[in-house]
Design brief:
Distance between the termini: 40 Å
CATH topology: Protein Transport Mog1p, Chain A
CATH superfamily: Mog1/PsbP, alpha/beta/alpha sandwich
Number of helices: 7
Structural class: alpha+beta
Shape: globular
Largest sheet: 8 strands, antiparallel
CATH architecture: 3-Layer(aba) Sandwich
Radius of gyration: 16 Å
Number of domains: 1
Order of helices and strands: HHEEEEHHEHEHEEEEEHE
Strand content: 35-45%
Length: 217
């Protein structure tokens, strides 16, 4: 469970979020379209998962985010207020994980996606601003989080995403993550791959490489 909540403890650092309607929240979360394929019609995204992975329900994903926010804030009242606000205003697109019930071993990875409504900010606000904010909040969080110095660009279905690596240490366990962030209209889309092994990182890279985005203007 720590590898799961760790993803959302650091995910809560993306605190540039604006209010989203309940209707958006319901249509944004991915739904099965057949086989292991899941789509978010609201964000025009399609993801294919391995057969031994499981998609959490929206309620489960929201609960995981809530737990992660609590771990992030710790006893810091100001940060707790901030993470509560993030939880109330965030929009979860998906949370999927390598399922121990299907693999017969402990889960070593998960994949999550969230959206931030930044319509009230200038059009120039982008992924680099979100990453800078994440780094600033990491300095005061109760969770041991570090971000890599380098921001790279990765293409997903032809769309450029800014990428930064992150490490979370929880109860002595080192959890590796890669954040991929892009702006789509009024939203910042963040994809987070969490892995405990190089094998799982390679698998997640493949899942993300096969994401389909219908983001033509």
């Amino acid at each position: 469970m720590k590898s799961i909540t760790g993803a959302f403890a650091t995910l809560a650092l993306t605190a540039l979020m604006m209010p989203l309607t309940g209707a958006q929240a319901q249509t944004a979360y991915v739904a099965p379209t057949g086989g292991n394929v899941y789509a978010s019609d609201f964000f025009d995204m399609t993801v294919t998962l391995p057969s031994n992975w499981t998609l959490s329900s929206k309620a489960e994903a929201d609960n995981i985010m809530s737990v992660g926010g609590e771990e992030l804030a710790g006893d810091n009242a100001e940060l707790k207020e901030m993470t509560d606000l993030v939880r109330q205003k965030s929009l979860t697109i998906m949370f999927a994980f390598e399922d121990p019930a299907k693999t017969g071993k402990n889960s070593t990875g998960n994949l999550s996606m969230v959206a931030e409504n930044v319509s009230e900010y200038p059009a120039s606000l982008g992924p680099e601003d979100a990453i800078a904010n994440m780094r600033a909040l990491a300095d005061v969080s109760a969770t041991d989080v570090t971000y890599g110095d380098m921001i790279t660009t990765r293409l997903i279905d032809g769309q450029p995403f800014s990428s930064v690596e992150s490490t979370v240490v929880m109860e002595g366990v080192e959890i590796n993550q890669i954040y991929l962030i892009a702006r789509k209209g009024d939203h910042l889309i963040t994809i987070i791959q969490t892995h405990l092994s190089e094998e799982t990182k390679f698998l997640l890279d493949g899942i993300i490489s096969n994401i389909k985005l219908d983001w033509t203007p």
